[in-house]
Design goal:
Keywords: Metal-binding, Zinc. This is 3-methyladenine DNA glycosylase I. One of its GO terms (molecular function) is DNA-3-methyladenine glycosylase activity. InterPro entries: Adenine_glyco, DNA-3mA_glycosylase, DNA_glycosylase. Helix 2 crosses helix 3, helix 2 crosses helix 9 and helix 8 packs across helix 9. This protein is about 45% helix and about 5% strand. It has a domain of about 140 residues: Hypothetical protein, domain 2 (Endonuclease III, domain 1, Orthogonal Bundle), CATH 1.10.340. Strand 1 and strand 2 form a beta hairpin. The longest helix has 16 residues. It is mainly alpha-helical. The protein has a two-stranded antiparallel ribbon with strand order 1-2.
C-alpha cells in the first residue's frame, strides 16, 4: 500500500484501501460508485440508502441492499409513498434491513417528495442542477472533503421540498456516489471514468 492509501490489486488495478479487500466493496467500486445516476427511481434509491447509511458503514448497507430492494419494492416511489403505519411496523420487523423508525419514515416521506417534484421537472434535474463547476482532485484520503458549498445548498433545497435525512454530509456522499463530483483518488484506476469530469 502506498502512503496515499492506494492498493494495487492482484489484477494490477489501483484502488483505495476501502475497496481493496472486501469483494463486495471492490465490485461496487469498480462498476457502480461514481457513475452517473440520472433516472428518478435510481436516484430515489440512492438518497434512501444514503439516509439509512447515516452512522453506519457503507459495507453494511451494501450487504443489505437486496433486502432493502425487496422491502421497498425496488424503491418504486409510488409504492413507497403509499406505505402506511402498518408498513412501518412490518419493516421494523424485517431483519434484512436497518430497522430504524425515523429512517423508514424518511424513505416514505422522500418518496412523496420525489413525486411532488415531478411538477417542477423532477428529482433528477433538481439534484443535478447542484453539480459544481469543478471537482476535487484528492491525492490522499485527507484531501477528500465531507461537504461542499453545493452539498450544503442541495441539502437546504431538498429540505425545503420536504425531504428528510438529507444533511450536507449525506448529500456530499450522494454526490460522490452518483458522479456529481469525482473523489476517486488521483492514482485510482477509476479516476475520471464517470464521463462527467474529464
Amino acid at each position: 500500500m502506498t502512503a496515499e492509501g492506494i492498493v494495487i490489486g492482484e489484477d494490477g488495478l489501483a484502488r483505495p484501501l476501502w475497496a481493496s479487500s472486501d469483494p463486495l466493496l471492490r465490485e461496487y467500486y469498480d462498476t457502480e460508485w461514481g457513475l452517473p445516476v440520472r433516472d428518478e427511481q435510481g436516484l430515489y434509491e440512492r438518497i434512501s440508502l444514503e439516509a439509512f447509511q447515516a452512522g453506519l458503514s457503507w459495507a453494511t448497507i451494501l450487504r443489505k441492499r437486496p433486502a432493502f430492494r425487496a422491502a421497498f419494492d425496488n424503491f418504486h416511489p409510488e409504492t413507497v409513498a403509499a406505505f402506511t403505519e402498518a408498513d412501518v411496523e412490518r419493516l421494523l420487523q424485517d431483519p434484512g434491513i436497518v430497522r430504524n423508525r425515523l429512517k423508514i419514515r424518511a424513505a416514505i416521506t422522500n418518496a412523496n417528495a420525489t413525486i411532488a417534484l415531478r411538477d417542477e421537472g423532477g428529482l433528477v434535474d433538481f439534484v443535478w442542477k447542484f453539480q459544481p463547476t469543478s471537482t476535487p482532485a484528492p491525492a490522499t484520503y485527507a484531501d477528500v472533503p465531507t461537504t461542499s458549498p453545493e452539498s450544503i445548498a442541495l441539502s437546504r433545497a431538498l429540505r425545503k421540498k420536504g425531504f428528510a435525512f438529507v444533511g450536507p454530509t449525506t448529500m456530499f456522499a450522494l454526490m460522490e456516489a452518483i458522479g456529481m463530483v469525482d473523489t476517486h483518488l488521483v492514482d485510482s484506476h477509476r479516476r475520471g471514468t464517470s464521463g462527467v469530469w474529464s
